[in-house]
Design a protein that fits this description.
The chain has 28 helices and twelve strands. The two termini are 75 Å apart. The N terminus is likely disordered.
C-alpha cells in the first residue's frame, strides 16, 4: 500500500501522521485480512476484528477494519450492512487522506449496486477517477476490482468486455500467489462460460477451481466452482457426473450460504431429476421452499423451469403449464433479465406440458420460442469460443513477444559482456603497450641523454676540421632522435593530464614569425615554398601549446609535400579566427581520414622514413586542440593536397605582459653541482657537462652515497640534479632525505627517462622542477639557470 497521509489535500491541520514503522505494521495486518477474502466469511470477520483490535478506534487500522467488515457483509449478501460500513470506512479514509482505501471502496459500492440490479451504475462507479496518483499496487485488490467489472459487463450483455475482464482478473488472481484467489477467479470465469452456453470451457475451468479450493479449504470458491461444475456437466448431458458433484456439495451442506440455499436446492432438484431420481428432485424443491430467505427472490426463471420439469415428470402437466405461463407473464422485461439457457428450458417445459394437454397451438408457439433461445445460445457459445481462441492467440503472441524480447535482452547482455571482456582485454593491451613504450623510452633515453651530453661537451673541445664535423653529425643525429622521443613525451604528458593550458590574448603574427624562423630554411632546402599570410589579428589561446600545434601541422605538411609548397594563413570570420595550413602534397584518401589523428598511424611511410616521425604528430595536434577547445577540421583531395583548419576565439588587441626573461645563461663557475643517478654513463656525462661549465661536481648513485660523500667533504651543493627512478628509491624520496640531512632547501632538478603517465603525474604533483631525458647541455644549463633564479627570488 503506497498512499501517504496528507497526500490528498492539506486543508486539515490536524490530519494524523504515521511513521513508516507504524504504517508497515498496519499494512502487514491489512494484507493478512486480504488473504482470507475468499476462504470463509467467518475467517474474514475474525481477521478484520483482529485488525480493529490492534489500534484505537479513530486510527487508520480501524478504518481498514471497517473496509474489510463491509466485504464480510457482502459475503453474507447483506448489502444494507455493507453500505453502512462503506460509509463509515469512507469517512475514516477521508479523515486520514488515505487515497488507496478511498479508491478501493468504489469496488464495494459497485458490488452493492450490481446486486441491486443497477449494473450500469456499478460500472460507472468503477470508472470514476481515482484519488491516488499511482496504479493499484496490491494484486488482491486489482483482482477484486477486475472481477466485479467482469460481472458488470456480463450482466449488461457485453460479452467481449466481460471475457477480457474475466481473463484479466484471472491473471491478477494468479499474480497474488494465493491459490484461493485463483480458485475464485477460475470458478467465476467458468460460471460466465456456462451462462453463455460454452459448457466445455466452463466444465474445465470449474473442475480446476474446485480442486484448488478443496485443497485450500476455501468455502466460497469451493461452493461456487462446484455448483458451476455441476451445472456444466448437467447441460453437457452428463447428469450422472453432475449428480456425483452434487453429492460432494451436499456432504458439506453447512458450507452453503443460508441466503442462497434455496437456489442451490433448486439446482440439485434439476440434477437429480435428470439423473433419474424424481423423488429426490421433488424433495429438494420442497426444501427450497422451506429454507427460502424472505429477502431473496425464490421464484426465479430457474425455479420455474425446474418445477415445471418436475411436474411434467410427475404427470401434473396442467400445473407445469400454469407455472410456465406465470413465469412468462411475470414482467415485461422477462426476456431481458433472464439467461437464454433458463428461457430455453422454460419454453421446452411449457412445450411438453402443452403437448400433453393437447394444446398444440401453444406447444408450437413455445417450441418456436425455445428454438429461438437455442439459436441465441449457439450464437453466444460460438462467439465466446471465437473470442476465447482470439484471447488465447493474443496471450500466446504476447508470450512469444516476451520470450523474443527476453532472448534479445539475453543476447544483448551476452554481447555487452563479450564487448566488456574485449574492452578489458584491449585496455590491458593498451596498458601493456604504454608500459612497454615507457620502458623502451626510458631505456633509450638514458644512453641518448649520455651520448648527447658527451657530444655537447666534446664539440667544444675539438678543433675545427674533420673530427669536429663528425661530432656535429653526431649532434644532428641526436637531435633527430630527441625529436622522436619528444613526441612520445608529449603524448605521455597529455595522457597523464599534466599538460595545462595558460590561455591569454596573443597576436597571431608573432606565432607565424616563429614558424617562419623555424621552418623557412627547411622548406628552402627541400625546394618548397613556405608562405605566410595573416592580418593583425589577436586570439585567445595558450601561446606555447598553439605553437606546438602549428609546428606539428607545418612539419607534417612539409614531410608529405614533394613539390609546390605550404601556406599558413590566418583570417578573421566574425568572432573567430581561422588558422589554416594548406599544402600541395600527396593528399589523404577519404578512407584514412577517420584515423589520421590516431596514435602511431601513418600513411605512405611503409619504409618508416624517420624524417616523417613516428605517427604521433597529428595525434598530439588533436589532443592539444581538444585541450584548448579549438575546433579542428581537415579536408583533403588525393594528389592535390590537404588543408587543416583551427577555429580560434578572436579578441581585441591587448598589451603584452611584461615577462622577466632570463637575459643569459647563468655563469656556473664555482658552483657545486650534486649529481645523483644510478646509471654510470648518464652520471658521468652530466658531470662532464657541468664540469665543462666551471662547476665542482659531486656524483653519487643514491641518496645514501651522496650523504656519505658530503660527510667527507667541506663542500655544500648549490643545486642538485637527481634521476627520478633510482635503483632503490625515487628521486623525490632522495631529495627529501638530502634536504632533511642538510637542513636547508636545496634547489633541485628532477630528470627522468620515464614517460609513464603515473610517474609524470607524481613528479608534477611534487612541485619540483623537472626535465625529460634526453637533455642537451644547453637545455640543462638553462634549466639550472631558471632553478637558481627562482631560488634567489624566493630567498629575497
Amino acid at each position: 500500500m503506497t498512499g501517504q497521509p496528507g497526500s490528498a489535500r492539506n486543508d486539515d491541520a490536524a490530519a494524523p501522521v504515521f511513521s513508516s514503522v507504524a504504517r508497515s505494521q498496519i499494512e502487514a495486518l491489512d494484507r493478512a485480512v486480504w488473504r482470507t477474502r475468499f476462504r470463509d466469511p467467518l475467517e474474514l470477520k475474525q481477521a478484520a476484528d483482529a485488525l480493529a483490535a490492534s489500534a484505537p478506534a479513530d486510527s487508520l487500522a480501524a478504518a481498514l477494519a471497517s473496509f474489510h467488515h463491509a466485504w464480510h457483509r457482502l459475503a453474507l449478501f447483506d448489502q444494507t450492512g455493507a453500505g453502512e460500513l462503506h460509509a463509515q470506512a469512507l469517512a475514516a479514509f477521508e479523515r486520514h487522506h488515505y487515497t488507496p482505501g478511498i479508491d478501493r471502496l468504489r469496488v464495494v459500492k459497485a458490488l452493492i449496486l450490481l446486486r441491486a440490479g443497477d449494473s450500469g451504475a456499478a460500472l460507472a462507479t468503477l470508472d470514476e477517477p481515482t484519488r491516488s496518483n499511482e496504479e493499484e499496487p496490491l494484486a488482491e485488490a486489482r483482482y477484486v476490482a477486475l472481477n466485479i467489472r467482469a460481472l458488470c459487463y456480463g450482466d449488461l450483455g457485453d460479452l467481449d468486455n466481460a471475457m477480457r475482464s474475466f481473463s484479466a482478473a484471472l491473471t491478477a488472481a494468479r499474480q497474488t500467489g494465493i491459490p484461493v484467489f485463483a480458485a475464485n477467479a477460475l470458478g467465476n470465469f467458468g460460471g460466465f462460460h456456462a451462462d453463455i452456453h460454452n459448457f466445455e470451457d466452463a466444465e474445465q475451468m470449474c473442475r480446476e477451481a474446485f480442486a484448488l479450493a478443496d485443497v485450500a479449504g476455501a468455502r466460497a470458491p469451493w461452493v461456487t466452482s462446484g455448483t458451476n461444475w455441476m451445472l456444466s456437466l448437467f447441460f453437457l448431458g452428463r447428469p450422472a457426473e453432475a449428480r456425483d458433484v452434487a453429492l460432494q456439495l451436499l456432504a458439506r451442506e453447512a458450507w452453503l450460504l443460508p441466503a442462497k440455499r434455496s437456489a442451490y436446492f433448486t439446482k440439485f432438484a434439476a440434477v437429480f431429476l435428470h439423473a433419474g431420481d424424481l423423488a429426490e428432485a421433488a424433495a429438494f424443491l420442497d426444501r427450497a421452499e422451506v429454507v427460502a430467505d424472505p429477502g431473496v427472490t425464490l421464484r426465479t426463471v430457474e425455479w420455474y423451469w425446474v418445477c415445471a420439469e418436475v411436474r411434467n415428470a410427475q404427470g401434473r402437466h396442467a400445473e407445469a403449464f400454469e407455472l410456465c405461463r406465470q413465469a412468462i407473464e411475470s414482467g415485461s422485461d422477462f426476456d431481458q433479465v433472464s439467461l437464454p439457457t433458463d428461457l430455453m428450458r422454460l419454453y421446452n417445459a411449457a412445450t411438453q406440458a402443452a403437448e400433453a394437454l393437447g394444446d398444440f397451438r401453444s406447444a408450437l408457439h413455445f417450441k418456436k420460442e425455445a428454438f429461438a433461445k437455442y439459436e441465441l445460445l449457439v450464437g453466444q457459445s460460438a462467439r465466446a469460443k471465437r473470442l476465447a481462441l482470439q484471447m488465447e492467440y493474443e496471450v500466446q503472441l504476447a508470450e512469444w513477444q516476451r520470450d523474443e524480447a527476453l532472448a534479445e535482452q539475453h543476447a544483448a547482455e551476452e554481447e555487452r559482456g563479450r564487448l566488456a571482456d574485449l574492452n578489458r582485454a584491449l585496455a590491458a593491451i593498451n596498458t601493456d603497450k604504454s608500459r612497454f613504450l615507457a620502458a623502451a623510452s626510458h631505456d633509450l633515453r638514458q644512453p641518448v641523454h649520455a651520448i648527447g651530453l658527451f657530444a655537447d661537451t666534446l664539440v667544444e673541445q675539438v678543433a675545427a676540421g674533420q673530427a669536429r664535423d663528425m661530432v656535429t653529425r653526431i649532434q644532428q643525429s641526436m637531435r633527430t632522435m630527441n625529436g622522436m622521443l619528444s613526441e612520445l613525451l608529449d603524448i605521455s604528458s597529455l595522457n597523464a593530464g599534466i599538460t595545462h593550458a595558460a590561455v591569454t590574448a596573443m597576436p597571431v603574427t608573432d606565432l607565424l614569425l616563429h614558424i617562419d624562423n623555424e621552418f623557412g630554411s627547411v622548406a628552402r632546402d627541400r625546394g618548397l615554398n613556405l608562405r605566410l599570410a595573416a592580418a593583425d589579428l589577436w586570439v585567445q589561446s595558450d601561446p606555447a601549446l598553439l605553437k606546438r600545434i602549428l609546428q606539428n601541422l607545418v612539419a607534417n605538411a612539409l614531410a608529405y609535400t614533394k613539390q609546390g609548397g605550404v601556406l599558413v594563413s590566418a583570417r578573421g570570420r566574425g568572432e573567430m579566427v581561422l588558422l589554416e595550413v594548406w599544402d600541395t602534397g600527396i593528399g589523404i584518401d577519404a578512407t584514412h581520414l577517420p584515423r589520421i589523428f590516431d596514435e602511431f598511424y601513418q600513411i605512405g611511410n611503409t619504409s618508416r622514413d624517420r624524417r616523417k616521425g613516428m605517427g604521433l604528430g597529428l595525434a598530439i595536434v588533436r589532443r592539444l586542440a581538444d585541450l584548448l577547445a579549438h575546433p579542428l577540421e581537415v579536408s583533403s583531395r588525393p594528389g592535390k593536397g590537404t588543408r587543416f583548419r583551427l577555429q580560434l576565439p578572436r579578441v581585441a588587441m591587448a598589451s603584452l605582459p611584461e615577462n622577466r626573461p632570463i637575459a643569459s645563461l647563468a655563469d656556473l663557475t664555482g658552483k657545486v653541482a650534486l649529481i645523483i643517478d644510478d646509471e654510470p654513463d648518464v652520471r658521468d656525462s652530466m658531470a662532464a657537462a657541468f664540469a665543462a661549465r666551471g662547476c665542482s661536481v659531486i656524483v653519487a648513485g643514491s641518496a645514501a652515497a651522496a650523504l656519505a660523500q658530503l660527510e667527507d667533504v667541506t663542500l655544500r651543493p648549490d643545486f642538485a640534479v637527481i634521476d627520478y627512478r633510482l635503483e632503490s628509491e625515487t628521486g623525490l624520496v632522495a631529495l627529501s632525505a638530502l634536504r632533511a640531512r642538510l637542513e636547508t632547501w636545496l634547489p633541485a632538478l628532477i630528470v627522468t627517462g620515464d614517460t609513464l603517465a603515473t610517474d609524470l603525474t607524481q613528479i608534477d604533483a611534487a612541485g619540483e622542477a623537472w626535465l625529460i631525458k634526453p637533455v642537451s647541455a644547453d637545455a640543462l644549463q638553462l634549466a639550472v639557470t631558471r632553478l637558481l633564479s627562482a631560488s634567489s627570488a624566493a630567498a629575497s
